[in-house]
Amino acid sequence: MELPAPLKVAIDRQLERTPLAELQRAAALLSSRYRAELRDGRLHLDGELAVKAYLATRLPATYAAIRASLASAAELLPDFAPATLLDLGAGPGSALWAAADCWPELSAACLVETSPTARAVGEALASTMDGIEHLWIAGDVTRDLPALGPADLVTLSYVLDEIEPVALEPLVDRLWALTAGLLVIVEPGTPAGWRRILAVRRRLIDAGAHMAAPCPHSAPCPLAEPDWCHFSRRVARSRLHRLAKGGEVPWEDEKYIFVAASRRPAETVAARVIAPPRGAKGLVTLKLCRNDGLAGERTITRRDGAAFRIARRLDWGDAMPLDPG
Ligand SMILES: C[S@@+](CC[C@H](N)C(=O)[O-])C[C@H]1O[C@@H](n2cnc3c(N)ncnc32)[C@H](O)[C@@H]1O
Fold first, then answer.
1. 18 Cα–ligand 1 center, Å
2. Is the pTM of this model over 0.70?
3. Which residue is closest in CA terms to ligand 1's atom 18?
């Protein structure tokens, strides 16, 4: 997945004249803090270099994960056309760009972010967007937030791993209360990220939310550790991204997990593909999370006719339609 061209241009402008060695050092520090899920009272994005390193090395991946999560929800909510977005822990605005790309109807966004540098950079990037009013607010999502109005779409991406676990449930309650249409929460696709999303999912189902994606049901998650649910998106790496990270290949695979909870029921699907499909001549084996609340592998062969024609086109993360025939 590629970033929208205007975002790429705006990021390049932010990064020009930043010495590569400084960017590399900041990228290495940021990466080690994220890997350790460090909570030492300091913000990861606490200065200009850290935010620049984020733009160069993390935003392409978080954008891809958010965009893919929104696409999965949009597919099953075809009438949903949000005009307003509320994004918490916005960073430099990854979710704003992903939402605007997914729903061209979006016309106004409110973005809450605690780091002044991330806010300033996010605002500069967003000022290059056409047709969207954007308001950036200072706020700590774990404390009393400034008076916020509800929005059609509410997003929280890659933030839960930076806040204290005890803050999770009150935050989810607050976000759901502010959601007029759809709430999407995205996390890294690690076992810990999945556990946080499971806690969010349970809380939202108890509050009466409808699962839009990825889960095709509201029953308890059928997966048990050491298994965990996650998806993956291949992300193009720019030259600077490669240089800043010291990577060789022009792409990376971002693993992510998300939950999309809707005020209205989403379209029903038979299942979600929750692992890379395995194929051989005349057959495909899919690991499915099914709408009856169970998960497991299913092998579909050419003899299954229409079901096989559909199944062999499905990829990891896709929804399997009802009654493929
Ligand atoms: C990993 S970045 C994610 C940024 C963006 N949402 C994305 O997906 O690219 C996490 C962001 O959450 C912000 N953040 C962390 N704790 C926060 C809090 N308690 N209140 C508001 N923002 C917070 C950080 O400053 C940072 O910008």
1. 23
2. yes
3. 140
